[in-house]
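Page 42, continued from yesterday. The earlier attempt failed because a stray header line got pasted into the input along with the sequence. Redoing it now with the clean sequence only.
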Amino acid sequence: MHRALAIGAVLAGSLSGAAMAQDWQPSEPVTIVVPWSAGGSTDSVTRVVAEVLSEAIGQTFVVVNQPGASGSVGTRSVWEAPHDGMMFAAGAAADLGAYPVMDMLDVPLADWQLYLHVANPSLVSVPADSQYQDFGELLEALKAAGDPITASSAGLTSAGAISLDAIDKAAGGINYQQITYEGGAPAVTSTVAGETQMTAQTAVEQVDMIRAGRLRPLAVVADTALELQDFGSVPPITDWLPDVAVAPNYFGLFLPADAPEEVIATMNDIWETVIPNSDRMRSYASERAALFKPSYGKDAQAAAMPFLQINAYQQFDSGAGPNDPADFGIPRAN
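This time it went through. Structure tokens are written below.
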């Protein structure tokens, strides 16, 4: 007989460590694979989510970092493990959905159950001592002939790479050399250290260095300004490139859709009632310049699609992705 989660008035921000009743009661710790290095946007938010889930379910959720091949190595390990609910993947839904396009993992987005929590905007930033004072100056340099400007990213399907490609298309071509790293944290660190001249990784990965005065944000890859706590406002990139492709870049947990029904039912209940009311999740989003908008199931699939369309067709049209996104249920945006 179905037993509904005993959540009611008990919210994630005030659980007091007590486990709640639920259908799924794992007898051993549950693993969440972060397919990127420690310290990046996926890693930081997943550790907060793991704490909330541990309290809600009464079993430890362990975060394991397994980077490689733009996040596909760790994600593949989850798919190839038993689909018993004891292993989740974490990351950006736009990466997950683009893996079959890139020939990295032949599993369409529809074969995953998505549990999204935050959307992370990308920032175009330069070292604090850079000569570029605003995005307009950087854009002029990117469009000029000569040596390419080096730009760091966390891999070909990362938020940074997607944003760089969107800028390239909207500007009619830019002169840059992308330097990839195994995660957003090392990518941002390379720009801080002057190894690369710019980055377009997520705000959550950059915000500490921005507040410390080590990075200068020039534009947010969005159509509205971004208010950074303890810093100020960052102008939208559409002030310079009004036709640039932008959409929310949602992050979350991913479970094979054929996992046991009791696992999915329990997770759905938690995402319906606990996660949206979690003080820790709201605080994380506010401090890290993220949009907190949890969703699951069909709503999550719909929320993930706009940014996935941008990513998948960028990869396919450029030749980096050999497979047609339409074959995996990803229509081209109008």
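Notes: Residues 297-318 form the longest helix (22 residues).
Reminder to self: strip header lines before submitting.
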